From TrEMBL:
This is Uncharacterized protein. It comes from Symbiodinium necroappetens. The lineage of its organism: Eukaryota, Sar, Alveolata, Dinophyceae, Suessiales.
């Protein structure tokens, strides 16, 4: 990233929360993930919102591949991704990146914040700052190496 004070590219570390860890914690709190098999009534209640998603979820490539691999439907999580500007003070704003589990849509989860005053100044309009964070998110949700076989289907962008 190029900054106003330096003429060379400088690596900058931004704190990021792993989306997979946040969803995993949510599923554990709902007793859908853990050492014992979840109650069938709990699973049925949890999967009720899938009908509203229709083909965006049912025919999503991640959903189809996971079902072919024998992964239980409750471990294939439909996600919504949301970007928004967040005003902090009169002169300081942030770009917020949120996810929502579409089965439990009442709660948005903040993945990362990026201070707009710290965006790259190379002429990319901040893309050099946002791209690595989006890439880290993509690697996390597209990984098939999760020990509990979670899969994430991003079916909505806002």
């Amino acid at each position: 990233m190029n900054t106003k004070k330096q003429l060379i590219r400088t690596p900058v570390k931004h704190p990021v929360r792993l989306a997979s860890d946040m969803i995993r914690d949510e599923l554990k709190a709902l007793n859908l993930l853990g050492p014992s098999k979840p109650c069938e009534q709990t699973v049925a209640t949890f999967l009720e919102n899938d009908k509203a998603l229709g083909d965006r979820y049912e025919k999503h490539p991640v959903t189809l591949q996971a079902l072919n691999e024998g992964i239980p439907r409750e471990r294939i999580v439909p996600l919504s991704v949301y970007f928004d500007g967040v005003q902090y003070t009169k002169n300081e704003n942030f770009l917020g990146f949120y996810i929502t589990n579409l089965r439990t849509p009442k709660q948005q989860r903040l993945v990362w914040l990026l201070r707009l005053s710290e965006l790259c100044q190379c002429g990319c309009r901040g893309w050099c700052s946002v791209w690595p964070l989006l890439e880290a998110f993509r690697e996390d949700v597209s990984s098939t190496d999760h020990e509990d076989h979670l899969r994430f289907a991003v079916v909505d962008f806002k």
